[in-house]
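Purpose: get a first structural picture of the assembly so the mutagenesis plan has something to point at.
Setup: two entries, given in the order below. No constraints added.
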Amino acid sequence: SQQGEEDPQALSIQEGENATMNCSYKTSINNLQWYRQNSGRGLVHLILIRSNEREKHSGRLRVTLDTSKKSSSLLITASRAADTASYFCATDASAGGFKTIFGAGTRLFVKA
Amino acid sequence: DGGITQSPKYLFRKEGQNVTLSCEQNLNHDAMYWYRQDPGQGLRLIYYSQIVNDFQKGDIAEGYSVSREKKESFPLTVTSAQKNPTAFYLCASSIRDRLYEQYFGPGTRLTVT
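Result (C-alpha cells, whole complex):
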C-alpha cells in the first residue's frame, strides 16, 4: 500500500466552512508536503512541514504533523468555491536517497 | 514568465508505437521529474534527473526512457514495452536543495488504443 494515504477520499462542504483532510504514512520521514490539483491540471505545492515541526501556517492553510502517530492534517479555513480541488500529501523517505511518495488524494468540493 | 511547459496537452497513439512527451522549464532548476497519474490515484515516479546527463529510475520505470541533454529539457518516451500506457503524465522540476518542493507542468493526457 502507499506510504501516504489521505482521509477522507472525498469531502463536500459549504463555502465558508472549514475543511480538514488527514494523511497517514508508514515509515519515518524527513518532511511531508501538501499539494493541490485542480481537475486535469498539474499539482501546486502548498506547504512543506519538516519532521521536527509540529504545525505550520500559510494564509488560510494550517498543517499539523504528529510523527508519533505518523499522521498529518491539512486544515483550510473559511473555504471558498475556488478551493475545490484534489489535495495530496507526499512524503519522502528519511534514508536511501531521493524518494517521494504521493497518496491517492482527498477530493474537496466547496459548494457556493 | 517562468514555468514548466508540457506538450501536447492530449496525445493519441496506436498500440505498438513509441511516443515522446515533451517537458521544458525556464526556472533554471537543476532537478526534473516524470510522474504518472491514473484515475483516482496519486502520482507514481517514473524517472528523475538531478543534473544534466544523469537520471535515475523511479518506482515504475519499466517501459519508459528519458534523456537529459539540456538543463531545460527532460523528454519522456513511452515505449511499446509499456503494458498500460494510457494515463496522465506530469513533469516537475525543483532546485537541487529543495527536491521536495516541486513545480509541476500542466500534464499530458496520453491515450493508447
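Chain A has a mean pLDDT of 90.
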